[in-house]
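Notebook entry, structure prediction.
Reason for the run: the old model in the group folder had no record of what sequence produced it. Starting over properly, with the input documented here first.
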Amino acid sequence: MSSDIGELKDKKHQHWPIKREAVIEGDLVLGGLMMVHERSDNLTCGPVMPQGGVQALETMLYTLDIVNKLKLIPGVTLGAHVLDDCDRDTYGLEMAVDFIKGSISNIDDAEYACNATAVRKVISGVVGAASSVTSVQVANLLRLFKIPQVSFFSTSPELSNKARFEYFTRTIPSDLHQVKAMVEIVKQLGWSYVSIIYEESSYGIKAFEELEALLARNGICIAVKEKLAKDSGVATETAYDNIVQKLLTKPRARATSPVVCTRFVCGVWVRHSSTPVVRASGRELSYVLLTGILMCYLVTFALVFRPTDLLCSIQRFGTGFCFTVVYAALLTKTNRISRIFNAGKHSAKRPALISPAAQLAICAALVSVQVLIVVVWMVVSPARAMHHYPTREDNMLVCDSYIDASYMIAFSYPIVLIIICTVYAVLTRKIPEAFNESKHIGFTMYTTCVIWLAFVPLYFGTASHVPLRVTSMAVTISLSASVTLACLFAPKLYIILIRPERNVRQSIMPVRYSRKPPPSQNFTHTQSKKPSSDKETQTDPTDFSIVTNGQTVTLRRVNLDKDETTKLGKENTAEKKTKDNGVKDKDKKLEKRHSKEKLNEKKNSKEKIQDRSQNVKEEKIVSENVKQINNCDITRDKVQSMNEKSESL
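New structure, fully documented this time:
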């Protein structure tokens, strides 16, 4: 009957169950806080926990029986008042209030006047709780009344703080030792990149913080940090499977892949540095560009580490600097192409500042502006890590620049470079197909503009959500670097590694851009010249015949046709014979006509000889122009204009 009544009471008080307690009378009463019942989603207390809860309760009661039976404390009988916390910190705190009622009611040995027989005995000490979260809550209460507490299962490192929990002790080692064991296992297995799942509780958070710090000291990286729900003790197997699936789809778990790809591209560029494709792309600026891309990937790691003053300074400097290196190199490339083609439309004179050394100097000057901006910013307002409280329950350690919009100071100059690069990409969009790197740069800049147009509003719109702001920044940096790496280097890698037969000068500058004169011309010319020694040669000068006045033409030396010479000799012999034999008068008229034709033919021959002399002079002028053009990067727009003028020539 009593069990039926208890079940009815449980159904009636599903959200506020009746107090479950075990009481043993004695001279000294010890409190006990056990998790006899499990946690539940719908009820305050779930089903009975035989192994962790009932066994602990039976162990305590059995120990008290042995102590009293053997009279280990002469003249004193130990009693107990054991309560069930149902593995919930809030409910356990409510139960623990019973432990202090005796201390409150018997202050200064006073008794209730209305019922002196109901005097509560003071709890001498408390055994429990099992959960670290519950122990933290109960310890904060018991310390006010100087009631000692001994836990047999609470392992949180937080409870080792004797300044806060001076009356708490435990019979089980702290999680700090557990964390050390976990790190030793990771080191033994040779892992250098791990993911962590932890519970959103005092126990889980503190253990995670210790583990994160210890992993960092041992050089082990954390790919993903996944937090379980606060009541993760009742999570189903499906919930854990979902978390594992989420871990597998996290991009940061594979964050080293872009770094490996960038290093691979650098290796290919170094190994094939003398091939036409690499030389045509500008080797020095390509190395600068790859360095900037690699820094973009590396700075994303700094964004996810635990913030410190030094790390916040690195983040503030690195986020803008890596972008500046990338877009300063791109701006220098596009500006160089634009100046060469614009100069080719007016004269064959070599444009200024297009040598490799000059290009690196321009790029360094552009980067130095960003360095100056960030240094001044850090002097005026040094970077520091601070605690941020977005809500009353949340306490986040973040860099101070994430709280406001001050990070845009680091991004303002790179945004200007992006805009200028995009303008140059538009201006050079009509460059001939053979010089299609400008088209690749254009596509890169158009895509980058789309990414940043999405990032800037998202950054300002997530002021109240710092983790989302950090995530959006990391994604933007990685995505911009990936677009640049794929658009600019993937086509060249395809030629170098898969189609090496196209990695020749004729492929870089097709034959059709060295047009031959119409077949009716009888000029031939063969020019042999050593290749240019320019480190950043875009096109080899041997790809062209002669460049005159900024145009490509093919000239042929003037040689009198052998058939024409033979014909003239025969005609002269016939004329002499006719003259010597004394032809008739009517034949004299014919002779006069032949003489006239002969004079005309001689005149034409003389004119051809004069043309040949003129062409020889032009060749001398041409050779001088070739020397100038050999040191410049011949680009297709210029070649096209050369062809038009060569035809008119």
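Summary: The chain has four domains: 2-172, 176-253, 255-506, 511-648.
The old model has been moved to the deprecated folder.
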